[in-house]
Amino acid sequence: PSTASELTDFGVRHVGKGVSRLTNGVMASAKGSYVTFEDGRKMLDFTTGIGVTGLGHCHPKVSQAAADQCLTLVHGQCSVAFSTPYLRLIERLMPVMPDPSLDTFMFLNSGSEATEAALKLARHATGRQNVIVMQGGYHGRTYGAVAMSKSKTIYSEGFLPLMPGVFSTAFPYWHQLGLPPNASEEVLVQQSLIQLEHLLQQQTAPTDTAAIIVEPVLGEGGYVPAPKAFLEGLRAVCDKHGIILIFDEVQSGFGRTGKYFSCEYSGVRPDVMVMAKGLANGFPLSGIVSRKELMDKQKPGTMGGTYCGNPVALAAARACADVMAEEKILENVNARSKELFTFLDKLRQDPKYSSVIVDVRGRGLMVAAEFAAPTYPAHDPAANASAPKGIAARLTARCVDKGLLLLATSIFQTVRFIPPLNISQEDLAKGMKIFEEALAEVVH
Ligand code: PMP
């Protein structure tokens, strides 16, 4: 293949069908907030590769740190010895942890691996088996992680049996509770906590329950921030019963929501926190962190893997932490966030769209606009398959045609905005303009 379209045809023929794509274009290079395709198109990136390249593509300081590390130590196998970048990253991350009790780390390669590692830690530490997950939660596609994911059946359909011992309970998102979009936060929290209480009484006894895992901002399931009272409720249940509370900050961490970690909005401390994505701005790196006493219970050799804690990714992550501080990334997130919310709230109030946009929500630059779905997602496969082709999919497709990479979430008609955390005011405005034009074309 030589031309851009020949490359696309080659990809369509030879890349496994199980991987889906927003577009069949071929990314050739990327810099900052833009991705350049083989056909010459330069696209503004409001996906950041699903919330990963928060510091922009190929941030010079991060790429330089990785390049330097490539010439110093590439494979510092974690079961052979410590490596300098491993320890230097821990040193750099400790001060930004949401609670000083989170002082013991372990690095892995992907979010899925890390959520499974967190569960292994909880099962081993408690001697219990079951895990409670949230309806709409997403923790990855490997077997254990997919068992804990409840955002779409496509991840599990045809892959059964999954890991046993997983119980799900409502996240305080109106869809999960069969409530209207204007349901009050108080009712949502109360109903969710009642469901959890019933689950512990009817299906998984506290003494069999190792962990509760929750995204403090529900990600793939709809970009819904967990109210403070809900996380406080979970903390209280976990404290009462000796259950490990795991926060999955894979998508919501590292400044995405305007604080270093989104759980800081609640002040609730997890026992274990899962990190990935923004941690290394595109280099495959994830991690778990907990208090020392939990990790110290593990037997040496039970965790890890050939590539876990790759020095190049670790060096990049350390540079990311430097950039976060040097470039005052959180300040930019909060300034741009206000502009994005103002824009979306205005659209929502516009009589042309007020019956179409049912919700605007999120935190920082993890923001969603939810559209009215013509029908509630049905249980029959044919209707389910066509549901995502609703307004959100049409809208994101129009945006792509117009030069803006934008994604939808899960089964509901929700479009998510995850631009770079250091996006300029001009580029954010440019993306919002494209979105507004696409919306006008899709909603008549
Ligand atoms: N947890 C959350 C909250 C996520 O958003 C994701 C990925 N979207 C994962 C876990 C899985 O991460 P990975 O794709 O790196 O396995």
UniProtKB/TrEMBL annotation:
Keywords, comma-separated and alphabetical: Aminotransferase, Pyridoxal phosphate, Transferase
PROSITE patterns named among the record's database cross-references: AA_TRANSFER_CLASS_3
Gene3D superfamilies found in the cross-reference section: Aspartate Aminotransferase, domain 1 (3.90.1150.10), Type I PLP-dependent aspartate aminotransferase-like (Major domain) (3.40.640.10)
Domain of life: Eukaryota
A molecular function (GO) term: transaminase activity
InterPro entries per record: Aminotrans_3 (IPR005814), Aminotrans_3_PPA_site (IPR049704), Class-III_PLP-dep_AT (IPR050103), PyrdxlP-dep_Trfase (IPR015424), PyrdxlP-dep_Trfase_major (IPR015421), PyrdxlP-dep_Trfase_small (IPR015422)
Cofactor(s) essential for the protein: pyridoxal 5'-phosphate
Membership in a protein family: Belongs to the class-III pyridoxal-phosphate-dependent aminotransferase family.
The protein, known as: 4-aminobutyrate aminotransferase
